[in-house]
Amino acid sequence: MTDEAPDTEEVARKLFSGPIAFLKSAPGLQFLPDAEVEEIAFAGRSNVGKSSLLNKLTNRRDLARTSNTPGRTQELNFFDVGQPLRFRLVDMPGYGFAKAPKDVARKWRYLVNDYLRGRQALKRALVLIDSRHGIKDIDLEVMKMLDDAAVSYHLVLTKADKIKASELQAVEAKTAEEARKHPAAHPQIITTSSETGLGIDQLRKAVIEAIG
Ligand code: GTP
Ligand code: MG
């Protein structure tokens, strides 16, 4: 049928290959942009691959800065998607970075937690989990906080290229089992690799579906 609404995949392809631009960095809550559109935020432990996944999702190499060294992203970074503006992607500092100075780690934690708990415009959080490590206590704390605040989130396994298929299956099963215990978690988990592109189409679809 020719008069059918374009399917999600087509919408996703168009949006993510169209205009996307860095808007601003917010080092504190008072610097957040006006909440004109809904937001999708990348959360997860330091070095889990948040900025890399944002780049892969948007098919751009250096939109968000990445690094081998944990603690690269230090502020909330907002990216405008679509022209006219459709929604925003938010790259965040990581949590659980043991080597950061205590006051710095505390500042990031408050910034990320306050944003996640209190941001009306936040439509969905993507909680990234390193496939090699699985869900850690600190991830559970964040998941519990999101459950309590009724913020819907999607668990996303990262760096799937780094482990064997059999190990990946096991971590997928375990992660999905944990997701089912959490009221605000999407029941389906998404396995990705920013290296190979695995799961990126699925993630794009999930973002578009969340935005609606
Ligand atoms: P912080 O901003 O410090 O919290 O880190 P982050 O979560 O944004 O991680 P980032 O995207 O900077 O990636 C950290 C490191 O992991 C970089 O060296 C990336 O190249 C690497 N990396 C990220 N995703 C993947 C992946 O899917 N596969 C592989 N092999 N490496 C990855
Ligand atoms: Mg980062």
How are the SSEs ordered, and which strands pair?
Blueprint: H1 8-17, E1 20-26, E2 39-44, H2 50-57, E3 76-81, E4 87-91, H3 102-118, E5 122-130, H4 137-148, E6 153-158, H5 165-180, E7 190-191, H6 200-211
Parallel strand pairs: 2-4, 2-5, 5-6, 6-7
Antiparallel strand pairs: 1-3, 3-4
Residues 44, 46-52, 66-68, 70-73, 93-94, 158-159, 161-162, 193-195 line the site of guanosine-5'-triphosphate.
Walkthrough of the structure:
This protein starts with 7 loop residues before the first helix and ends with a helix. Strands 1-3-4-2-5-6-7 form a 7-stranded mixed sheet, sandwiched between helices. The longest helix has 17 residues, at 102-118. It has one domain: P-loop containing nucleotide triphosphate hydrolases (Rossmann fold). Helix content is 35%, strand content 19%. The relative contact order is 0.17. It contains 6 helices and 7 strands. α1 (8-17) packs across α6. The chain has 212 residues and is α/β, with parallel strands linked by helices. β3 and β4 form a beta hairpin. The chain has helices at 8-17, 50-57, 102-118, 137-148, 165-180, 200-211, and strands at 20-26, 39-44, 76-81, 87-91, 122-130, 153-158, 190-191. The radius of gyration is 16 Å and the shape is globular. Guanosine-5'-triphosphate is lined by residues 44, 46-52, 66-68, 70-73, 93-94, 158-159, 161-162, 193-195.
